[in-house]
TrEMBL record:
Keywords: DNA-binding, Transcription, Transcription regulation. Pfam families: HTH_1, LysR_substrate. It comes from the Bacteria. This is LysR family transcriptional regulator. InterPro entries: LysR_HTH_N (IPR000847), LysR_subst-bd (IPR005119), WH-like_DNA-bd_sf (IPR036388), WH_DNA-bd_sf (IPR036390). Belongs to the LysR transcriptional regulatory family. The keyword Transcription applies. PROSITE patterns: HTH_LYSR. Residues 6-63 form the HTH lysR-type domain.
């Protein structure tokens, strides 16, 4: 059998009658009009089935039953106060936490510097970094699983807000002994499409950008599908085959001569790095500061 829970406000009024000696004074302390307080007490008497106040020409006083109820009302109100205090503490703790979700490429090569600068300004800020591919990051942002996300996807789902924080470029890389490294002319897009490549998994921003760029050409089956740019880079270095990766993932190896960039004629593989979030449209707090830092530091790097 379900029970009707008493209103905390009317319990506070009863406690006020005990503390102050009158219903009028109790109502004023709780910010209620006296007629409203009187009706609330009568409703509680009906719900409990016992008289709580003796009403007379000189005002109202607690009945013996009312005195017992007030004793327990004080306990209930004290517990409710502790609940509100705990909720306030949780809100305060939440304001000092930031959940960030980033795609693999951004997380590996850019986010550490962004978060390091943010932490230097906010030493008490707890930061949680989640790393996924771009599709999973967008799903997490949509579901409210993080405060801010960073992706390199060509588009952002409806209902999410976004801004560009930097630019990136995909490049074709091979080892120095690969035949493509000795080409005198650029690779044609159809040649690239017809070649088995080491690629990122479906859902990654890198894979989506490549697939979009080559959508008009017949594609060869991938040599390997891997879940990170680091794994793709290692496979190319091991001689598995050519790959299309972010310049962020191979900059050091290209500068050292361990990998060579092969130009592709007329193929655009530039992409935007985006911050994505849900409501509100205008970010505030640590999330806004992180995006500002990313926009300042997230400059494109050339291979």
């Amino acid at each position: 059998m379900s029970r009707a829970w008493p209103d905390l406000a009317v319990l506070a009024v009863l406690v006020g009658v005990d503390d102050l000696g009158s219903l009028g004074a109790a109502a004023r302390r709780e910010g209620m009009a006296q007629p409203n307080a009187s009706r609330a007490v009568r409703r509680l008497e009906s719900e409990l089935g016992v008289p709580l106040l003796r009403r007379g020409a000189r005002g109202s006083a607690l009945t013996p039953e009312g005195t017992v109820v007030v004793h327990w009302a004080r306990e209930v109100l004290a517990d409710a106060g502790r609940l509100l205090d705990a909720a306030q503490a949780l809100r305060g703790a939440r304001r000092h936490e930031l959940a960030v979700s980033a795609s693999m490429t951004v997380a590996e090569h850019l986010v550490p510097a962004w978060l390091g600068e943010l932490r230097r300004r906010h030493e008490d800020l707890r930061i949680h970094l989640l790393v996924h591919n771009s599709t999973q990051v967008l799903e997490q942002v949509e579901a409210g699983g993080c405060d801010i996300g960073f992706v390199e996807s060509p588009s952002v789902p409806r209902g999410l807000h976004s801004c560009t924080v930097g630019r990136d470029r995909l490049v074709v890389v091979v080892t120095p002994d690969h035949p493509w490294s000795r080409r005198r002319r650029s690779l044609r897009p159809d040649e690239l499409a017809a070649t088995p490549l080491v690629v990122r998994e479906p859902g990654s921003g890198t894979r989506t950008t490549l697939d979009d760029a080559l959508r008009d050409f017949t594609r060869a089956e991938p040599l390997l599908e891997l879940a990170s740019g680091a794994a793709v880079r290692a496979s190319v270095l091991a001689g598995v085959g050519p790959a299309v990766v972010s310049v962020l993932a191979v900059r050091e190896q290209v500068e050292a001569g361990a990998l060579r960039v092969v130009e592709v004629e007329g193929l655009t593989l530039d992409r935007r790095l985006r911050a994505v979030w849900r409501e509100p449209r205008r970010l505030t707090g640590p999330a806004a500061e992180l995006v500002a830092t990313a926009r300042r530091l997230g400059q494109p790097l050339k291979a």
